UniProtKB/TrEMBL annotation:
Keywords for this protein: Acyltransferase, Transferase
Gene Ontology MF terms in the entry: acyltransferase activity
Name this protein carries in UniProt: 1-acyl-sn-glycerol-3-phosphate acyltransferase
Domain Phospholipid/glycerol acyltransferase residues, every copy: 94-210
Keyword Repeat applies: no
CDD domains registered for this protein in UniProt: LPLAT_AGPAT-like
Stretches of the chain forming a coiled coil according to its record: none
Presence of keyword Transferase: yes
PANTHER family: 1-ACYL-SN-GLYCEROL-3-PHOSPHATE ACYLTRANSFERASE (PTHR10434)
Taxonomic lineage: Bacteria, Bacillati, Actinomycetota, Actinomycetes, Propionibacteriales
Superkingdom per UniProt: Bacteria
InterPro entries per the UniProt record, alphabetical: Plipid/glycerol_acylTrfase
Length: 310
């Protein structure tokens, strides 16, 4: 009896495994893709966001950003802001370009800009992430004034150029996605193209510590109110006749210099820029745990950096 029961259990387990291997889990088609008839791909629809820049939406966003968003952000992290005097050199719309390693980066930029500039700032956001569902698209558009852009080989949206022409500042993260380990990834050409095409300056922004405060995979900042540094740089203007390909490395170098300045001092960073010896912000050639470990080093205060330099 016992032997038969064991044999029956083994046979049953084998049958369950066979059925599981052939079961249609989720929505995967049973017919191989190579055997399916060709169907023209559906044209993707763009989520409209013009309504988010109407007077009523702007008024609501002012309450949300200045009140709830700013309060929650400063309760969860300790922002250190520097370089805001560079923004006084602007006399029109600009592209605000920053490195990107956390979902904290957008609220950090918006909540550290001067109020008048923040009210006229829109944010480029990945269409396949922030605009994949109506509720996420609506929430991000009303709170952050986002608009969708394609980041996977799609056509460049005309919205950024339209916004710049209408006097709006546009926040762009040229890496296209968040850094997986906190170090700066290669900048794409979109920001440089917009600056050259529309004749607007670029404000470089170096953000340090946001990966340690809220890395990929977390839906909320880590406990302990970690320090995050946001450093603004002087406006960069494309030279007469300069192409986007020539201008793009200057944007990346400016953000790298700001991150170097945040890690050391203004004088040391400027001296390295002058001699072409600025360190790469792509991180060490090491195992991922080592890269993450180095990118999550605590932010030094200005006073401690000054004492260390002396």
């Amino acid at each position: 009896m016992g032997t038969n029961l064991v044999k029956f259990s083994r046979d049953t387990a084998r049958d369950v495994k066979v059925v599981a291997r052939g079961w249609r889990w989720g929505r995967r088609p049973q017919v191989p893709r190579s055997a399916e008839p060709y169907v023209l791909p559906k044209e993707s629809t763009v989520f409209p966001t013009k309504w988010a820049r109407t007077p009523a939406a702007i008024a609501l966003r002012e309450v949300l950003q200045k009140g709830a968003l700013n309060s929650v952000l400063r309760f969860e992290v300790n922002p250190q802001i520097s370089g805001l005097d560079s923004l006084r050199k602007l006399n029109g719309p600009a592209l605000i370009v920053a490195n990107h390693s956390s979902h904290l980066d957008t609220p950090l930029v918006l909540c550290t800009l001067p109020d008048a500039m923040r009210r006229k700032t829109a944010v480029a956001a990945a269409a396949d992430y922030f605009f994949d569902t109506w509720w996420r698209a609506t929430a991000s558009a009303i709170v952050f004034n986002t608009f969708p852009i394609e980041r996977r080989g799609g056509k460049l949206s005309s919205t950024p150029g339209d916004l710049l022409a209408d006097g709006w500042n546009v926040v762009v993260f040229p890496e296209g996605t968040r850094s997986p380990d906190g170090w700066m990834e290669r900048f794409r050409m979109g920001a440089a193209y917009l600056a050259v095409e529309h004749g607007v300056p670029v404000i470089p922004v170096g953000i340090k510590g946001s990966f340690a405060a809220m890395p990929r995979g977390r839906g909320w900042p880590v406990p302990g109110r970690p320090t995050v540094a946001v450093r603004y740089g002087d406006p960069l203007y494309p030279a007469e006749g300069e192409s986007a390909r020539e201008f793009a490395p200057k944007i990346s170098a400016a953000v790298s210099a700001l991150l170097d300045e945040e890690a050391t001092t203004w004088w040391e960073a400027r001296r390295r820029v002058a001699t072409g010896a600025s360190p790469s912000q792509s991180g060490p050639d090491a195992a991922r745990w080592r890269r993450v470990w180095e990118s999550t080093a605590p932010i030094q205060s200005a006073a401690s950096k000054h004492r260390a330099w002396k």
